[in-house]
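Researcher: Please translate sequence to structure tokens.
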Amino acid sequence: MGKNRSKHTNSLNGGNKPNLTLSILDRFHIAIDFFNIGKFANAKILLNEILLANPRHAESWFCSALIADKEGLPQDAIRYLEAALKIDPQNLKYLYTIGDFYYEQNYLDEGVKIFELIISIKPDDYNGYYNLAGFMHKQKKYEQSLLYYHKVLELNQDNINAIYNIGAILIDTKNYKNAVQYFKKVIEIQPNSDDALNNLGFIYLELDGFENAVKCLNKALSINHNNFNALNNLGKAYEKKSLFSEAIKCFDGVINLKPDYAEAYSNRGVALQELRRIDEAINYFDKAISLEPQYAEANHNKSLILLLKGEFKKGWELYKWRWRIRASSTERFHTKIPHWDGINNDKSLKIFLWAEQGIGDEIFYFGMLKNFSNITSKVIATADNRLHGIFKRSMPEVEFIDRKKIDIEFIESSVDYQAPMGDLGHLCSVDKVIDTSRPKPFLSVNSFCKNDIKINNTLTGNILCGLSWKSANKDVGLSKSLNLIELAPLLLIENLEFVSLQYGSTKDEIEFVEKSIGKKIHTVDGLDLYNDIDGLVSLIDRCDFIVTTSNVTAHLTGSIGKKGIVLLPFSKGKIWYWHSGIGQSLWYPSLEMVSQINMNDWTDPIQKCKEWVLRQI
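Model: Translation complete:
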């Protein structure tokens, strides 16, 4: 510390002792008067004279530190305070001030030592514990920080800042349910705390309490209509409810209040994307990135929209930002193994490819590995245990291990390079070959399992259509799902039988359809459609064609080259690899795609699906 010394710094370190006509005390009082009216140059002259006469005048060092801070010279301020503390090492005023400077300069370890010293000097000083908690919070040492904030509350039970910050830590650690009580307590003490109301609204939003979230956020804005954080969160609440036009109005308000707020531009871009205003969305992502080049959400959002448009090279280059977004649902494998660059491909090497995201994406990226990689090295890959049988049969040269049971010590001692499966598009330069080398079916059906599939004998001679209509994705599954009865126009086609491929609890829906329209949806006794992927694939293969929403059934159908049609949502829930959602799938050429033309309205895609089915029979 203290390497960048100012002229003022040098003036305090040498020269001839002045001939003082006033006492040191008188000069110091005059220096303080100059300081208080902002005449720092005059104050520094007097303080310099005092310190030349008496280098151990601690208060002059302290005042010099305050002037240096005012002049934007934090390193000098810290050095002067260190000098004052050498003279008076237990002076709480000096200790608190240097602690504040350490906090501002991110000298976190030094700050912790200072406040530990303060507590040792004055054990009942709740401010010492409060500041120590703040340093721990900044270091993301959340458990220790909470411990010290609770100590503050033992000494001062209604300390509103400690209560607020405990809530903030619980938000940071995504412990939303417990955070609620702390912000409610803040509001009880201080009903007009718009920041506490904003945080409570944010928590309710994370807990899917839309109405409570909107109520809190609107109340925060009624107290302070310039609270851009509350307005931004209100926009996110509307966005989560697919009220995108209302969300855009909120984000416009945020941008008006704070034109340099990158998150508002990115959020507006997301809302525009959901309205299928793609080029406008990219423009707003770019604005966010121009304001904050390292803003992960904006870069990640742009990557997804570029991939959606088929601009694969640029999209995959930005796709790496997925690891840095706050709300990432992607599980990262942490390791010291070097990242594979896609080029080093010697036969003597071992490459570890690890799965990410859901089972549908695992199948998608396995197809990329099978169709587009030219890896000659030994490959070890992780996969959901349910996929091992079909993956091993389809690509026996790859060693598969359970993604939930990775022996990190073994892997780090056995392999040379690693990469996540989601990087394969970039690593295999798929953008260069996708237009000329269309993907082929890449999963092999288990013929023995297929022969074991027992379907009602009455189906003999009839055309068999497999059906799947729901997604279990916790974030967007509702947008991708429909009720079985909505498929009635399709189900009533004559000379066509249906078998359920839908995992989960479907008995009530199937019985309701049979009772309502007199159509039986067949099921296969003893076949676990969730856990027995080999069995599900064999059942898909037994069908003449498949009708499905965008779930694992769609991936499995396309991966074996079975003819099928995929019903897709308007925007929310439509993953980038379905692109426009119209016509033949780029990645699964045996699949036709139809999409909603109005948000949350399945009428048109179901009608188009019916027309497609009629063409098949």
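Researcher: Any highlights?
Model: The chain is about 55% helix and 10% strand.
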